Amino acid sequence: MTAAPASDADGAAREWLARSRDELAQVTLGPEATSIGRVERVADAIAQVSGLPEVRLNELLHFEGGQTGFALTLDRDSISAVILDAASTVEAGTKVSRTGAVVQVPVGPGLLGRIVDPLGRPRDGGEAVVAEAYHPIERPAPAIIERDLVTEQVDTGLLVVDALFTLGRGQRELIIGDRATGKTAIAVDTIISQKDSDIVCVYVAVGQRATAVERVIEAVRQHGAPEKCIFVVASAADAPGLQWIAPFAGTTIAEYFRDRGQHALIVIDDLTKHAATHRELALLTREPAGREAYPGDVFYLHARLLERAAKLSKELGSGSLTALPIAETDAGNLSAYIPTNLISITDGQIVLGSQLFAANQRPAVDVGLSVSRVGGKAQHPALRQVSGRIRLDYSQFLELEMFSRFGGIADTRVKAQMTRGERIRALLSQPRFATLRPVDEIALLAALSAGVLDDMPVEAMPELRTRLPGHLDAAVPDAAKSLEADAKLDDTLRDTLVASVRALAAGLKGKGT
Length: 513
Fold this sequence. Notes:
The protein is an alpha/beta fold. It has three domains: 36-102, Elongation Factor Tu (Ef-tu), domain 3; 106-379, Rossmann fold, CATH 3.40.50; 385-510, Up-down Bundle (Lysin), CATH 1.20.150. It is 38% helix and 19% strand. The record marks 370 as: Required for activity.
């Protein structure tokens, strides 16, 4: 007599049992130690935590309610942890666990075109960032022997910067001025100007209003190449801890491209608010205050941040990271604590004046106070040829204009200097989102030095600048390619460019523009 076949339920049970045995066989059994601390008190997004004696500085911590934080100061019996998320549910008695890792940020091409917070979490409503790796936000700056000379120009598209205060790849140029003088506008125009270049741009917003950040992002979307940009946002409404780590996280994201032989540009907007956040956290954790209530390490804080911008040697791929930190002054006081710190750290500064801004000179760059300590070493050879005397001529014009207010000037030579200076000022005044190509800047300055613009009405200069790119593309289509390879400006090409500008200027004068 044969036995009845097993039921389907018995077969499924045997399969489950066999699968469970296989899974258990692969489990490694052994002791596991976990460090659990306890929040003693919490206030102003700072938690005093006990029970974690082995935690290290800047180590990432997890709170019981799902929040994250990091260890800012280490005391004998407790640590001060900065909470990076909403701290409303963190209270005394909340459990805190170590992660064993410092604060890290995702890096890789998956961040291009995205808006993220300093921890790499999306803020644009998109999916989670696809990271190639996670790198610490605090990384050592390249050593001197790992660096190379800064010899390549970053085209900002702004004539006043490219001609007078050239920005080099790997340089750190501070943009500084009073509130509402156009500091962010210069940085955004520089980002927009990279839409046809090989530079990846990272914009870091620190303590800015959400509406201001939205305007920056929208400007890049309309006029630039947002797919080549990364926006790291820690607005004024975010936790102070997020604002504190934002510049370091943005620099780590930009370093990914530099370390792979590419070129990156980072804008930090702005370090004055970052210094204020650092002071806030230091006072809350009872760090001793130094000059003007700032902690004594605020200089080292920004020095170790900006030192990470560099041009790497050929052995390391020749990549570069260019930094444009922004700082704010009060009543033009460049000798205040934070401005002097940043000026001494960076390789030059672009100073914007409130009086120039009020006089409708945009960008409101003060050519007397601004400087680039790299300058002509990185300037395009052709641009260097045609911009040699422009700064001296413009400075002399500003002095003469001041003296001319006391009476008329009869000297013919001085009148010619005044005429040339007025045209220089009109050329250096440039509206937003109207960046120029190198060939446009070279043509304008060559025509200026040749005297082509001396008899042209100042009122016609804006239209000349607007129409010039299209006119050059039609009249001298090969000029841009001839100047792309950092070639010097030969006499033939110079004469051709001057003749093209002369023809355009004559046409505008003929129309009575």
